[in-house]
């Protein structure tokens, strides 16, 4: 059984910075998350290349001394935006907001994130993996686990800073969501 711990980065420094690091509260959130995960069999910590995710991952990994830590573009900040042919699948009240998503963050029909999830959730070496990423990516990955319609990720918001979700495999090899967006450790 392969367990995936899925986490949104801790609170970022407020302001207009394009790639902010963690705020003081975010650093404490990451330490609390690290204490919570210290008892788990996590062997690998993968994180978005963004500063807030990298700092969260490194802070958590300080509590996981045998874990390998690595950045991957597969966890970068993205937003699933429907193609013109699929826009009608999204609620009309979301259309204006979706149209404002910066082009650099757009993932048309979620193809990139679906491919990323398939790669990241493939059976690998023994031991659990921790994925530190961004709110909309967590929402999309959870939607993938649930087999929900494309627009369902929007109804999973907000994914909280340092929120923990756990995806495990059942005895039939099916992915199951055993915890979603928990902040009990904070």
**What does the average pLDDT come to?**
95
Reported for the largest beta sheet, the result is: 6 strands, mixed
Beta-strand residue fraction: 15-25%
CATH homology superfamily name: Phosphoglycerate mutase-like
Give the uncertain stretches in residue-range form: none
The helix content, as a percent range, equals 25-40%
Which oligomeric state applies?
Answer: single chain
Q: How many structural domains can be distinguished in the coordinates?
A: 1
What is the strand arrangement across the widest sheet?
3-2-6-1-7-8
Shape: globular
GO molecular function, one term: hydrolase activity
Enzyme class: hydrolase
InterPro entries: His_Pase_superF_clade-1, His_PPase_superfam, Mito_Ser/Thr_phosphatase
Protein name: Histidine phosphatase family protein
Structure, briefly:
GO terms for molecular function: hydrolase activity. By secondary structure, this protein is an alpha/beta fold.
């Amino acid at each position: 059984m392969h367990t995936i711990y899925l986490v949104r980065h801790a609170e970022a420094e407020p302001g207009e910075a394009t790639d902010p690091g963690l705020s003081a509260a975010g650093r404490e959130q990451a330490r609390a998350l690290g204490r919570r995960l210290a008892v788990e069999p996590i062997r690998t910590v993968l994180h978005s290349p963004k500063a807030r995710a990298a700092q969260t991952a490194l802070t958590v990994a300080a509590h996981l001394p045998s874990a390998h830590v690595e950045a991957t573009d597969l966890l970068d900040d993205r937003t699933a935006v429907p193609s013109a042919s699929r826009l009608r699948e999204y609620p009309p009240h979301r259309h204006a907001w979706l149209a404002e998503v910066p082009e650099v963050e757009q993932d048309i029909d979620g193809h990139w994130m679906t491919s990323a999830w398939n790669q990241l959730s493939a059976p690998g070496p023994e031991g659990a993996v921790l994925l530190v990423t961004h709110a909309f990516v967590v929402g999309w990955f959870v939607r993938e686990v649930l087999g929900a319609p494309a627009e369902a990720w929007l109804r999973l918001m907000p994914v909280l800073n340092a929120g923990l979700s756990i995806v495990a495999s059942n005895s039939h090899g099916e992915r199951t969501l055993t915890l979603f967006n928990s902040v009990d450790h904070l």
